[in-house]
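Tutorial, part two.
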Amino acid sequence: MFEVVDEWASANVKALKTQIQKRNIGATHKLLASLAYNIVRASDGNVSKAQIMFNYYGRFVDMGVGRGVKIGDVKEVRSVHARALNALNARRPKKWYSKPMAAGVNSLSELLAHHFGRQAVHTIESQISNAKIELTI
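Running the prediction step on this input gives:
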C-alpha cells in the first residue's frame, strides 16, 4: 500500500506544480519550491498519513484573498463594489489547489479501494485453497 500512496502523492505534487506554472503564480517561485510530500507510516508499517505540504499563503492565492481583499469580497464578485475592489487590488481566485486536490483525493480513494479489493480477493482465495473439509457420516 505504501507504493500506491507514494506514487499518488508524487503525481499529485507534480499536478499542483503544473497548476502553479500554468496560472503563472508567484514571481519568486517560492510557492512552487515549497511543494513537497511526506508519507508517514504507523508502527505496523502501514501508511497512517500522507501529507502534501506547501507555503500557507498558497491557500490565499487559491481563494483570491489577501492585502485588503477579504473572502466576503471575493464571494460577492457580482456586486459593483467587489468588482472595483478586485480590479484595484488585482486579486482573483487562482484555483491551483482546491480543485486539483479534490480530484486527487477522489483518485486516491479509488486507488485504495482497488488495492484493498485485490488484497481481499487474494486473502479469500488463499483461505479457500488452504481449507480442509471433513465429512462425518
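The first strand starts at residue 36 and ends at 41. In part three we will examine how such features are distributed along the chain.
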